[in-house]
Amino acid sequence: MGQKVNPIGLRITVNKNWRSRWFAGKKDFADLLQEDLRIREAVQTRLKDAAISNVFIERYANRVRVTIRTARPGLVIGRKGEDIERLREQLSTSTGKEIYIEIDEVKNPDMDARLVAENIALQLERRVSFRRAMKRAIQMAMELGADGIKVMAAGRLGGAELSRTESYKDGRIPLHTLRANIDYGTATARTVAGAIGIKVWICKKAETAEA
Prior knowledge:
By secondary structure, the protein is of the alpha/beta class.
């Protein structure tokens, strides 16, 4: 079971929270869901170099609050706040709603599963050895105090003719323990040989539900 269920979805209300927080009737639900997807896509596309870990969305009547978790807040805000204002205007135009943007800084990018996966993907695109990239990520997370970390890569690793799956782990990753604070992230490396999928599980010290 632990291998087939998203570890974050499995722990909703236990020690994780929803990434979209709003309520809608049957009539509006599909439209608002599509709007959420458009907002996330716009943020990820516009800020693809800003190390975006997560995008949280909250709705109040005709207002939308978008909280961006990033390891590079300066890149999101821009000079004198110009970039964040442009993003706000873009989202406001596409949704037709009042948009508020908040920035939440990720203090330790090497302990954030999504950012670790993206970092490995970036290295693979630069033709760094996949073993070296994965082992380096594991070493950094363990040094920063993670209880455990598991990294998996699948595809034509090292430009091989046949695709395969390789994984490395260190410490404990109790995927079936609901109280365990498991962070999970994925990324895709677009290499010359083809796409390589990266999955990262990080078991952190127990804490309360994510904000």
